[in-house]
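TICKET: design request
STATUS: open
ATTACHED STRUCTURE:
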């Protein structure tokens, strides 16, 4: 997983959990004083261990934390790639075009990045079907990012996961609709 994601997880722990959460999480995850740099990649397992530690610390379920963290990531992701996000896009445009216009560029520009392959299909002018498959199985992060994209565009999105890898499906199917 990319260092940017870990750097944001630290920021999330500092601002949303507060106190000495990040140090507690690193210690509980057996990572000592591990530092994360935005130009490198780190083992995926470390993210899992840190979020599990945050869950113990806060009493919040891991999936809820991952979703909240996904939402938290959006301002930074948008800031990093602002130059390739057309001004006229809506929230659903961004979600629909992430694979072909954003994740693709991320992979080309940054050898340390391996964002998931997203397959997205417009179901109607106000809804898209997101087919998420990644060995990281972070559909909760995908749902949180979708919510954060809605917040970024000041649009209310309804996010519903119809099938999930965690319950045996080959991919997660997430329907994202713009509320009327
Ligand atoms: C401005 C738009 C976006 C940018 C710049 C962006 C960029 C990135 C980057 C740099 C990563 C880290 C990859 C790695 O660890 O190697 C990532 C991961 C991820 N992205 Fe995106 N992304 C964007 C939008 C989205 C959207 C709209 C979704 C889905 C709704 C999404 C779903 C994910 C997920 C779930 C991951 C976690 C890694 C995984 O599941 O394999 N991203 N993205």
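STATUS: resolved
RESOLUTION: sequence designed for all positions
ATTACHED SEQUENCE:
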């Amino acid at each position: 997983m990319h260092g940017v994601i870990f750097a944001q997880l630290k920021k999330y722990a500092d601002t949303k959990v507060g106190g000495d959460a990040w140090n507690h999480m690193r210690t509980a995850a057996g990572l000592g004083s591990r530092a994360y740099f935005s130009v490198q990649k780190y083992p995926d397992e470390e993210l899992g261990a840190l979020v599990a530690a945050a869950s113990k610390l806060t009493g919040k379920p891991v999936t809820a934390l991952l979703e909240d963290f996904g939402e938290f990531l959006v301002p930074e992701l948008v800031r990093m790639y602002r130059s390739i996000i057309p001004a006229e896009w809506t929230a659903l445009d961004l979600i629909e075009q992430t694979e072909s216009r954003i994740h693709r560029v991320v992979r080309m520009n940054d050898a340390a990045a391996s964002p998931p392959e997203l397959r997205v299909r417009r179901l109607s002018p106000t809804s898209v079907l997101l087919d998420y498959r990644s060995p990281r199985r972070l559909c909760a992060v995908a749902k949180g990012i979708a919510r954060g994209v809605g917040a970024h565009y000041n649009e209310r999105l309804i996010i519903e996961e119809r099938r999930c890898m965690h319950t045996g499906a080959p991919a997660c199917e997430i329907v994202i609709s713009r509320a009327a």
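CLOSING REMARK: The mean pLDDT is 96. Residues 1-2, 4-5, 77-78, 80-81, 95, 98, 102-103, 106, 113-116, 118, 130, 134, 136, 138, 141-142, 145-146, 149 surround protoporphyrin IX containing FE (CB under 6 Å).
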